[in-house]
Amino acid sequence: MELAVIIPVLAMSDEMIRARIELLREKALPTTQFHIYQSQRGPGAIESRCDRQLAGDEVMRLSCQAQRDGCAAAIVWCAGDPAVDAARELVDIPVIGTGEAGMLFAYHLAQNFCLLTGDEDLAATSYDVAVRSGLGRRMVSIRGIQMSVEKLRTDREAALEKLAQVAEEAVRQDGAHAFVFGCLALTGMGEALTERIGLPVVDSAHCAVSLAESLVKMGLRYSRRTYAAPPVLPENLRL
Amino acid sequence: MELAVIIPVLAMSDEMIRARIELLREKALPTTQFHIYQSQRGPGAIESRCDRQLAGDEVMRLSCQAQRDGCAAAIVWCAGDPAVDAARELVDIPVIGTGEAGMLFAYHLAQNFCLLTGDEDLAATSYDVAVRSGLGRRMVSIRGIQMSVEKLRTDREAALEKLAQVAEEAVRQDGAHAFVFGCLALTGMGEALTERIGLPVVDSAHCAVSLAESLVKMGLRYSRRTYAAPPVLPENLRL
Amino acid sequence: MELAVIIPVLAMSDEMIRARIELLREKALPTTQFHIYQSQRGPGAIESRCDRQLAGDEVMRLSCQAQRDGCAAAIVWCAGDPAVDAARELVDIPVIGTGEAGMLFAYHLAQNFCLLTGDEDLAATSYDVAVRSGLGRRMVSIRGIQMSVEKLRTDREAALEKLAQVAEEAVRQDGAHAFVFGCLALTGMGEALTERIGLPVVDSAHCAVSLAESLVKMGLRYSRRTYAAPPVLPENLRL
Amino acid sequence: MELAVIIPVLAMSDEMIRARIELLREKALPTTQFHIYQSQRGPGAIESRCDRQLAGDEVMRLSCQAQRDGCAAAIVWCAGDPAVDAARELVDIPVIGTGEAGMLFAYHLAQNFCLLTGDEDLAATSYDVAVRSGLGRRMVSIRGIQMSVEKLRTDREAALEKLAQVAEEAVRQDGAHAFVFGCLALTGMGEALTERIGLPVVDSAHCAVSLAESLVKMGLRYSRRTYAAPPVLPENLRL
Amino acid sequence: MELAVIIPVLAMSDEMIRARIELLREKALPTTQFHIYQSQRGPGAIESRCDRQLAGDEVMRLSCQAQRDGCAAAIVWCAGDPAVDAARELVDIPVIGTGEAGMLFAYHLAQNFCLLTGDEDLAATSYDVAVRSGLGRRMVSIRGIQMSVEKLRTDREAALEKLAQVAEEAVRQDGAHAFVFGCLALTGMGEALTERIGLPVVDSAHCAVSLAESLVKMGLRYSRRTYAAPPVLPENLRL
Amino acid sequence: MELAVIIPVLAMSDEMIRARIELLREKALPTTQFHIYQSQRGPGAIESRCDRQLAGDEVMRLSCQAQRDGCAAAIVWCAGDPAVDAARELVDIPVIGTGEAGMLFAYHLAQNFCLLTGDEDLAATSYDVAVRSGLGRRMVSIRGIQMSVEKLRTDREAALEKLAQVAEEAVRQDGAHAFVFGCLALTGMGEALTERIGLPVVDSAHCAVSLAESLVKMGLRYSRRTYAAPPVLPENLRL
């Protein structure tokens, strides 16, 4: 299966992207091929609703491109789900929001969950995903680990330590039963954290891949009554 | 009070815009001055989530411009509220979404309401406003009058007739207690329709102006904990 | 615009009432004229549901009187909103509940809010307003400053100090994003507190005036399907 | 057990009241003694929120009188529950709202229910009971039988016929699973209607008596944190 | 009235059961006769969803037996309400779940409640009762007293002490207004605890008896549209 | 991956089961191996809460057996999800409820959905799944096709015709945006129906398989705080 991975931000080097794709591959089907579609313009990272808006046009354009190229589905590499609903209107293949995918699994695995992220003050787009999807009814808190993305990348052990500590606070203070990553820089740390704390930690990016594979296998796509095709479109968004 | 009116679509001629400003003036304070900020790029009209996304960048840029120009608040002329939440992060003046403003008044005036629009199949952005704001809990239906915007503009009497007929269906079939316009092409017809059907019909554009005037008078703005300033921004969005 | 201010309690001297009207005038339109309608019987203050009931008959009578006198709208000077819904059935002018008006703005300005009041143990009527209006879905807490109304009146600086302290607790412990006054003795302190804490503090009495002015300007009133005219009425409540 | 029945309206003759007490006795414990407390002033009937307000002062006064007289509990003979929450603040005995009592049983017996009443346009107070108690989440509709109270009293067979017809419509059109009376003029017809339609029909007045008996037997009363004693009271409301 | 008490667990000796029936009798009508129906197989106690499932078949069988024997209603002696909904499908008499009965009263008596139990980690079945019945909307917390059932039985004074302490924590930390027992080993301690803490403590087992008596008196049973008779049944479950 | 398929009913011949496994295989991963675990006792089919209870003990026993045999996950072949929550307490492998799995996908793919089943009067267990999981918030209706399972099996074309007709009614009358099968006799007809009506039709059994494969791949299991291991168990349920 050809699966598009849309990178809606500019601040990721080719190497970083390749590293992330390697992480995705670990949990993907052997037959899944990943194709990178990176934004040409937009924000460096998505840390606000402004960034989400600035990233959205390219998500739409790249979704169209992915469908034209024959991809079976697309996932958007950002837990704030920029323009995912708009892209679903445009194309006939499933466009998966990483944030919503992670919450869907967390919602399912426990009576409630806590969203773990880098900095909880930059999590407005995750809050919006929770509200729009309705899955936020089971979200008891959003907690950040207050670690820079740099630090996080270079010192995985420290990051894991901090995640475990924050998760335990969430259990004690918020009564959390499960966790979901609201920041894709945490991708790949779910299993290790699960082992540490003995509770499910949902790695949103893996969920997005899994959900895409499932929908494609089953021939399912988003409802055209919920995501109707727009009546008029600029040329670059036509299929 | 200097009030920015952001027109996030291209398909409105200067004359049409002037006519709309005249409508706004009718219910505005005598001291309110309207300043037009029209998009330079984006969709002709907003009929889908794609259009909403395509319109959003300019809403952010124009909100910044309005603040720089000394406007006390900005209203966005579209009931789908494109990038209104992003703009609230950017600027310190209130940015009012016309759709949410109308629903806020409709929510307040009755136990429930029906949203009236041109074509209910193009109302996904209004549906999203209802969900995100939580005001949709009192929305019993979305009903369209199936009349082209052209027809609507040239034949107000026929439009009013059709609105009254659809509103009465909403009363009978959905148990509606009040109405709100989900399409700004209907602006200015609220009072006449109210008279016809004897129930409140909320003219969303007037509500947006009124809400802006109220917030400015009271020195209120949106919460910076809900709409935190983005940590990084492109140059054209800095104040 | 002639605006009735219904004072549903007996314990306010003419001087105190005049002082409050002065506060209202600060945020009102220059053309708004306030007319005082004070209860002839009822409770000294409204600190319980009993007081709310005891105050209600006069609110109905005075609403009728206000309409007969040609007032364009009435606001009820108490955040517990005594008999406001009953008065809406009686008269054709909008009758605004101060409590609901404040919550409407607080609901709109932030993802959630905390209600600040004198004594949280006397806030049952505010709790009821939150439940009945549905706006309580975003109310994260009710917090009192435990200061007598006397003290509060004579030592504004101390009151402000205490409010800031309690508000900061609400931010820290309840995650509050905005505030609303649930006690009108706090009227006029919203802006100063906003400045202190950097988050919106909604001054409910000002909101009630603003909402009344908005509805009158737009020709809107409460739905007659939600607030149907009573079939039979005592003589003193007929218009 | 001495049980107060507070009649909050004037339009019931002694004979009518006696007839109703006979109906109550049929489902009450043999040891329950009913004591009538009738309003001295207030509305003839309760058909609006105005009527509810006008009836409330006497409900408070009579609740106090009932406690002073040694009654173990009081029920208020009106499904709009006038001043029931205020009375709970005043006295230490349970004060039962007939409307809420009926809904509590209907909520419990089925997945949803329809409220049957004389005229659905006079049911605003029942709607309020549903909202305030939260029990309205299972209320699928309010349906009236459009029969005058006179007719209803003199022609029980016709009333039953009409109730059965309206209930069947509610099953077919609203998917109703159970019924509750929202008008006490229907008291005593629950069992016959249950037999006719084969679904539970909750007779609210009987539920109020049963609930009162249960609370008294178990030594339970309403929470003093929800219904705190008012700090100040007029003399006639002191115990 | 003949009332079946179904004991769905094996670990209660005849003496223990007799002691519990004595407790029930204290709050029951003098004319109520209790008939014990004890499981022949199933779990010792119900501390998990597994136990609830293992206990369920016997609850169904014994409900049928109770109806055949002429009982007017049955109550199931376990706050986890094993197979209560299934039993309601089977028989025409009301089958009362002790857990739901207690929550119904707690819901009614206060704006919110805390569930008190032996060990909150064994309260999953109570959590399920709260979700399924919808009554959990007012449940602010589940708190355990961490005392073995043995200890609890032999040292009532210590149990009461611990309950009071935990309840006060719930008031302070969760804002609880009332309490309900989620473990029937606490039966009979409600009144003493109520006295200690001055807030209603609902003794679920007494509520179940009271509710059964009320339904029988009023001729009410569960809706056959919510609990339809199963089309096919094994022989031992036929009436 | 070794995947257990638990058949909790007796009325399926080996041939029928083999046919169903073939259907599952069509959408499963090539590496997935299905292992049948059929109940030795219990109901023929699951058409009521009684049947669900009667089927549950075997679901628990067979889940244990599946784990002992080294299966990576188990799915329960019934959309009423018998004892799925109990089984999750028992074993460490994921136990998937087919009903909840289907609803999870339907919830995700559209703003709302209609549940399609054989006979809507036998769908109480599906209703319970919707309530317990919270996914029912987006369920607008349950509609049956009123066709015997026999007929359904032998005349797929007629069944498809009937499904399309009922689905179109759901679109028109309930505003449905997507569909989910609430009866596994419909398995395998989702894609054909999707083609007919142009809206997503979620085939619950395929979703259960997909979800199981996803969880196993990602190393995720249900939260042990939501599904705590029971403290005591009968011998046959120990691992």
Structure write-up:
Six copies of one chain form a homohexamer. With 239 residues, chain A is α/β, with parallel strands linked by helices. The first copy, chain A, folds into two domains: 2-98 and 206-237, Rossmann fold; 99-203, Rossmann fold (3-Layer(aba) Sandwich), CATH 3.40.50.12500. In chain A, 46% of the residues lie in helices and 15% in strands. The first copy, chain A, has nine helices and eight strands. The first copy, chain A, has helices spanning 14-27, 49-68, 84-90, 98-109, 124-133, 149-154, 156-174, 190-197, 204-218, and strands spanning 2-7, 33-38, 73-76, 95-97, 113-117, 139-144, 179-181, 201-202. In chain A, the strands form two sheets. In chain A, strands 2-1-3-4 form a four-stranded parallel beta sheet, with helices on both faces. Chain A has a four-stranded parallel beta sheet with strand order 6-5-7-8, sandwiched between helices. In chain A, α4 (98-109) crosses α9 and α7 (156-174) packs across α8. The radius of gyration of chain A is 17 Å and the shape is globular. Chain A starts with a strand and ends in a 21-residue tail after the last helix. The model of chain A has no long low-confidence stretch (mean pLDDT 96). Chains in contact: A-B, A-F, B-C, C-D, D-E, E-F. Chains A and F meet through α4, α8 and α9 of A and α4, α8 and α9 of F.
